[in-house]
Design brief:
The protein is built from eleven helices and 15 strands. The protein is an alpha/beta fold and 371 residues long. It folds into two domains: 227 residues, Aspartate Aminotransferase, domain 2 (3-Layer(aba) Sandwich), CATH 3.40.640; 118 residues, Aspartate Aminotransferase, domain 1 (Alpha-Beta Complex). The radius of gyration is 21 Å and the shape is globular.
Length: 371
């Protein structure tokens, strides 16, 4: 059993993937070839955003977004500690300071109640992060940002295709970012990412920033980066995009199967009733996580922990922000992600869920007490 079954997906989509790759190899425009603009138009239409700018990775999407907003050294950005390191890394590399707000215990998403208290005169933006395929409470976050004149960057690396009140992830705020890392619900076969915005001035800045700040050939109006997504990777995403809605539907059906099997027995990461998730991961919360994980590993069932140590406790980042985030710390000890893929069978879901239930029920006997 695969944790994320990219091999079966490839076999299902082989013909269209090879056709797209062959087209690129024939025309030979490997950098900013026609598939780049085609993908940007398709992704913009999918989300409803006015502009889409493809970039080299999800991390580059964050860096370019922060550059476009004019982040200066010492500027603060409020974000979550319960995310992949790239969220904080992007702003620290530009001289910014992450300020961590704790998360909600039932979803692991940033807690809007914690955000406003963290705002200072140096705050430049709010950077909520999607988790396990679900977006944060963007209505409340956008309202807080509007009261304080702040930009909002949605880190939707795990939630492209998800919805919040029927609006697509990556088109919920000032800027939306996503990743096409191979394990994402919509992934390429290398690194890739995209930025979305309705702001034409920001879009122009981002387009220039990804090509070393170049407004036209050899005329550089900004200090930029080499942040383009190459044509071959765009071609692969275009091929996969044709099956994306079907794959999302499959993920949600499998998640419902897990939900039914775990009901009243195992806590799962909650999805808000007015939201949809891509189920980039299907995650349970366990008091004896490490023991259960070891049992599943012995049974040949792959698992993963997203994430075992919050960013505010990471050695390289602990000095930036002294706020305690006890909920994030607790979740880091409980979360366990189970196999999830559109090509996972119902039999596999039953096998995984039953193994979890058996492991949870088989609590080790207490050692005999001595006097």
């Amino acid at each position: 059993m695969e944790f994320i079954d990219l091999k079966t997906q490839y076999r299902a989509l082989r013909t269209r993937i090879h056709s797209r790759i062959d087209t690129v190899l024939e025309h030979g425009k490997y950098i900013l070839g026609p598939e780049v603009a085609e993908l940007e138009a398709a992704l913009a239409a999918y989300t409803g955003a006015r502009h889409c700018i493809t970039v080299a990775s999800g991390t580059e999407a964050l860096i370019i977004s922060l550059l476009a907003l004019g982040l200066q050294p010492g500027d603060e950005v409020i974000t979550t500690p319960f995310t992949f390191i790239a969220t904080a890394e992007a702003l620290v590399l530009l001289g910014g300071r992450p300020v961590f707000a704790d998360v909600l215990p039932d979803s692991g998403l940033i807690d809007p109640e914690q955000i406003e208290a963290r705002i200072t005169p140096r705050t430049r933006a709010i950077l909520p992060v999607s988790l396990y395929g679900q977006v944060a409470d963007m209505d409340r976050i956008n309202a807080i940002a509007a009261r304080h004149g702040l930009a909002v960057i949605e880190d939707g690396a795990q939630s492209f295709g998800a919805e919040w009140h029927r609006q697509k992830s990556c088109h919920l705020s000032t800027i939306g970012c996503t990743s096409f890392f191979p394990s994402k619900p919509l992934g390429c076969y290398g690194d890739g990412g995209a930025i979305f915005t309705d702001d034409t001035a920001l879009a122009t800045a981002m387009q220039e920033l990804r090509i070393h700040g170049q407004a036209r050939r050899y005329v550089h109006t900004r200090v930029g980066v080499g942040g383009r997504m190459d044509t071959l990777q765009c071609a692969i995403v275009l091929a996969k995009l044709e099956a994306f809605d079907w794959e999302l539907a499959q993920r949600r059906q499998l998640a419902q199967c897990y939900d039914r099997l775990f009901a009243n027995h195992v806590r799962t990461a909650r999805v808000a009733p007015h939201a949809s998730s891509t189920y980039a991961q299907y995650t349970v919360l366990l008091e004896e996580r490490d023991r259960v994980q070891a049992t599943l590993t012995a049974a040949g069932i792959p698992t993963a922990i997203h994430y075992p140590l919050p960013i505010n406790q990471q050695p390289a980042y602990a000095h930036f922000d002294r706020h305690d985030c006890p909920v994030a710390a607790r979740l880091a000890e409980q979360v366990l992600s189970l196999p999830m893929s559109p090509y996972l069978s119902r039999a596999d879901v039953n096998r995984v869920a039953n193994a979890v239930l058996q492991a949870v029920a088989a609590r080790p006997a207490r050692a005999a007490q001595t006097v």
